[in-house]
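Workshop exercise sheet. Pairs work together: one partner reads the sequence aloud, the other fills in the structure field after running the prediction. Swap roles for the next sheet.
Pair: D.N. / O.F.
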Amino acid sequence: MDRTSEIFERLKNKYPAAKCELGYDTPFELLVAVILSAQCTDKRVNEVTKTLFAKANTPEQFAQMEQSELEKEIYTCGFYRNKAKNIIAASKDICEKFGGRVPSDISDLLSLDGVGRKTANVVLNVAFGQPTIPVDTHVFRVSHRLALSDGKTPDDVEADLNNVVPDKYKPLAHHLLIFHGRYCCKSQRPDCGNCPLTDLCVEYDKIKQNK
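Structure field:
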């Protein structure tokens, strides 16, 4: 088994329940939740959307919402003004361009006002089952530590991962990297003692050499 396959096989064994931890029932609810999740924990987003989606959960409803009203609902997610603006703008685009249905094509998703590449890739992967690899801070960090990428931007890392990750692992790849980054390979204090990848980790070799 090649090194990259070995990495993802071990991560599968360590995180058998790895999946999107955002709560949603429809592709549109997922889109809103992902926009809210920027610089915010999934736990907080889920607390907010539980109340929010009980009041409104369709593009039509959000398109008609006053920005100030939505800001109050999502205030605790941080960056609430920009997020509210983006959610309402994307909702209007969905209604006007796509008949009220969230598109399942990357170009169409990226055409939505306020939707970036990471958000689009999450929706494609989680809601529509496409083998995209969204890159958030966890994926970016862990990919560098494991020498899966040396890309300077999230787009660079995404391109590298698409080149090196075997097809069989692509549907789960970002979930596995997120779980590893969230629960083990943390930013400030990585838990190398409980990591199944130390013998494959370039960063761990550096740590040992500096001791």
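Discussion prompt: The mean pLDDT is 96. What would you look at next?
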